[in-house]
C-alpha cells in the first residue's frame, strides 16, 4: 500500500524537520518525483549518486545542510541547449498557428458580414443608411472646419 502512495507522489518537502545523518541511497527509487526539498536540516555526508535516477526532477533544494560534493546530473539525456531550442521551436509553431487562426477568423467575419448584408434586406438597408449618415456627418464637419 505504501509503494502505491509513493508511486503517485510527484514531490517531497521535508525541509526544516531537523533531519540528521546522510541522505539515504534509496532516494533514487523515487523516480517519478519532480520536486525534492530537504533544505534546512542537519544532513551530512555526500550527495548520493542515486539522485541521478530522478529523471523527471525539476526542483532540488538541499540548501542549509552540511553536505559535501557535487550534485549528480539528474537529467543526462537532455542537454540544456536542447530544451531551450525546443522551447523556441514551440513558440514559433504557436505563433504560426496564432497568425493562421487570426487570418481565418478575419476572413470568416468579413464573409459573414458580406453575406449578412446581401441576404437580409432590412438589416442591409439599416447598415447602408447608417454608413450614409456617418459620411454625411463627416462632410458637414469638414465644411464647418474649413469655414473657421
TrEMBL record:
InterPro entries: Leu-rich_rpt (IPR001611), LRR_dom_sf (IPR032675), RLP_Defense_Trigger (IPR051502). Its main location: membrane. Gene3D superfamilies: Ribonuclease Inhibitor. It is a single-pass type I membrane protein. It comes from the Eukaryota. Pfam families: LRR_8 (PF13855). Residues 67-88 are annotated as: Disordered. Keywords: Cell membrane, Glycoprotein, Leucine-rich repeat, Membrane, Receptor, Repeat, Transmembrane, Transmembrane helix. It is found in: Cell membrane. One of its GO terms (cellular component) is plasma membrane. The chain crosses the membrane at residues 97-119. Belongs to the RLP family. PANTHER family: RECEPTOR-LIKE PROTEIN 1, RECEPTOR-LIKE PROTEIN 14. This is Leucine-rich repeat-containing N-terminal plant-type domain-containing protein. It comes from Microthlaspi erraticum.
Amino acid at each position: 500500500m505504501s509503494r502505491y502512495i509513493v508511486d503517485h507522489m510527484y514531490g517531497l518537502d521535508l525541509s526544516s524537520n531537523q533531519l540528521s545523518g546522510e541522505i539515504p541511497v534509496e532516494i533514487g527509487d523515487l523516480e517519478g518525483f519532480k520536486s525534492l526539498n530537504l533544505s534546512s536540516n542537519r544532513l551530512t555526508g555526500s550527495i548520493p549518486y542515486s539522485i541521478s535516477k530522478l529523471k523527471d526532477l525539476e526542483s532540488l533544494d538541499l540548501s542549509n545542510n552540511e553536505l559535501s560534493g557535487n550534485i549528480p546530473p539528474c537529467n543526462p539525456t537532455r542537454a540544456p541547449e536542447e530544451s531551450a531550442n525546443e522551447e523556441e521551436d514551440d513558440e514559433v509553431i504557436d505563433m504560426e498557428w496564432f497568425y493562421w487562426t487570426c487570418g481565418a477568423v478575419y476572413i470568416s467575419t468579413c464573409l459573414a458580414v458580406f453575406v449578412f448584408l446581401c441576404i437580409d434586406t432590412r438589416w442591409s438597408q439599416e447598415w447602408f443608411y447608417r454608413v450614409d449618415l456617418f459620411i454625411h456627418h463627416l462632410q458637414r464637419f469638414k465644411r464647418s472646419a474649413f469655414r473657421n
